[in-house]
Design brief:
The complex is a heterodimer of chains A (about 130) and B (about 325). Chain A is mainly alpha-helical. Chain A has 3 helices and 4 strands; from the N terminus they run E-E-H-E-E-H-H. In chain A, the strands form 2 sheets. In chain A, strands 1-2 form a two-stranded antiparallel sheet. Chain A has a two-stranded antiparallel sheet with strand order 3-4. Chain A is elongated. Chain B is elongated and about 80 Å long. The chains are: A mainly alpha (about 130), B alpha+beta (about 325).
Chain lengths: ~130, ~325
């Protein structure tokens, strides 16, 4: 990858940097900000975010979304996926984006089902 | 069809075997595909953690109570600050790695050397921090009892609601029980170190301390562990069969055994990645110093180990979320 054709804008062009080094520091600031928000939310645990939404607390959904945001910027700017060809991008990202949620959904549903069976069965697990 | 070129290195048609399909060199592309497969391994680990957690959703240990240590702050409840610090250290070492890659693109040997060194130091600090985290986890803090069904019974002060350590109330009953060693006692029977107290000592101490209550594994609607009444506690303590101090792969004073197993496997697997990343970085660091890449004319090797290093950071972001936050 030649350094001449690096894309220097993040947030869909909202934020443009003059050099690659500047962009790296910009992304670091953004990642630190997101991590700080996560830790603050984790310590405060606002009561309004404790409601259940699609089988999980709202707060946990926020954590997961923020994590994926962080993962996106690490992969796109630190690992330079942004500058790779579309075909390489796709062959790296697509298998993960398809397989991981697939596995996660199946196993989490199964775990929830087993919990229900153990919880409503006649066998005591607390002895 | 006429032959486009006689020199295979100048083949430009990708489907015709051009030397850079997807516009990435062989090594870089293979590093990417290794990362994809490694990411699937890690997601297998994390998803099975999620499975076990959903299966025990009403009794899973609360991470904030387990990981609440901070160096030099003894007895202070500091949930998450330490892992947050570790996260920052790893993200920062990721940044120095990117800066090294960028300096490599500009063929600035001195800068690459400096940033590689910073990256190695950051990685070493992270591995050290994780070792400290493991030490605290293995050593344990309060100690607990384990019932025949594998449930953990912890102790709280009924007046303050604070956790109470075993040594604060255990009665002293003289016993002659020694640790079995394969060299004496029953032939070839060995056992690990005995807990500091016996179940009988804990039971006696518990019944003579009126304000002690048992905290069970069950989580109530507010997300806290259920504390039993004094009568229920006195009945429950008779189920106990073993004293647990700290955590290993078989017993775990923090709650469900699987929690400790997954902690050791996931953070251990990740820590091993960081360790090997540091070793690879050191090798590349010395190659940079010796001018290997200067002679080669490009610093692509730094870029390739950089990819691996960022991946390790990327995985930590997920481990941090699923182990400490969620």
């Amino acid at each position: 990858m030649a350094h001449a054709d690096q894309k220097l804008a993040i947030f869909r062009g909202l934020l443009k940097f003059k050099s690659n080094v500047q962009k790296i520091w910009g992304v670091l600031i953004f990642l630190s900000l997101v991590t700080t928000v996560e830790v603050a939310l984790g310590i405060i645990k606002p009561a309004s975010l404790m409601e259940m939404f699609m089988g999980m607390k709202l707060l946990n959904w926020i954590f997961i979304i923020l994590t994926i945001v962080k993962a996106y910027y690490i992969a796109w700017d630190f690992m330079h996926i942004r500058d790779e060809k579309g075909s390489l991008k796709g062959s790296i990202v697509l298998p993960l984006v398809i397989l991981i949620p697939y596995l996660a959904i199946i196993l989490l549903f199964e775990g929830d089902y087993i919990f229900e069976v153990m919880n409503s069965g006649f066998v005591s697990w607390n002895f | 069809m006429e032959v486009a070129t006689t020199n295979p290195n100048e083949e430009t048609n990708v489907w015709g075997g051009g030397n850079k399909p997807l516009n990435a060199s062989y090594g870089k592309m293979m590093m990417w595909f290794f990362i994809v497969s490694d990411a699937l391994t890690f997601s297998g680990f994390l998803v099975s953690y999620g499975f076990s957690r959903f299966k025990n959703i009403d009794s899973w240990p609360i991470a904030d109570e387990v990981f609440n240590h901070f160096p030099f702050l003894h007895g202070v409840d500091a949930p998450m600050y330490y892992v947050a610090l570790m996260t920052f250290i790893l993200i920062f070492s990721s940044v120095t790695m990117v800066l090294a890659v960028d300096a490599g693109h500009h063929m600035q040997k001195a800068k690459v050397t400096f940033y590689m060194l910073l990256t190695i130091i950051g990685g070493a600090i992270f591995v050290g921090s994780q070792a400290w985290e493991w030490k605290n986890f293995i050593k344990g803090e309060y100690g607990a009892l384990e019932t025949r069904g594998g449930q953990i019974l912890q102790f709280v002060n009924g007046d303050t609601g604070k956790r109470v350590a075993l040594e604060a109330f255990a009665a002293d009953i003289p016993t002659s029980r020694d640790t079995h060693q394969s060299s004496n006692g029953i032939w070839f029977v060995d056992e690990t170190t005995l807990p500091t107290y016996t179940v009988e000592e804990i039971k006696k101490g518990f019944s003579s301390n009126e304000n002690l209550l048992i905290r069970s594994e069950k989580i109530d609607e507010t997300g806290h562990k259920t504390v039993l009444s004094r009568e229920a506690s006195l009945a429950k303590i008779n189920d106990a069969v073993a004293v647990v101090e700290g955590a290993n792969l078989i017993h775990n004073e923090y709650g469900n055994r699987l929690f400790a197993d997954f902690f050791f496997f996931i953070t251990g697997f990740h820590g091993f990645h960081v360790l090997s990343g540091v070793v690879i970085n050191i090798i590349i660091f010395f190659n940079v110093i010796m001018g290997t890449y200067e002679r080669r004319g490009h610093y692509e090797m730094v870029e390739k180990v950089g990819l691996y290093w960022h991946f390790v950071d990327l995985v930590w972001v997920f481990v941090f979320t699923f182990f400490y936050l969620v």
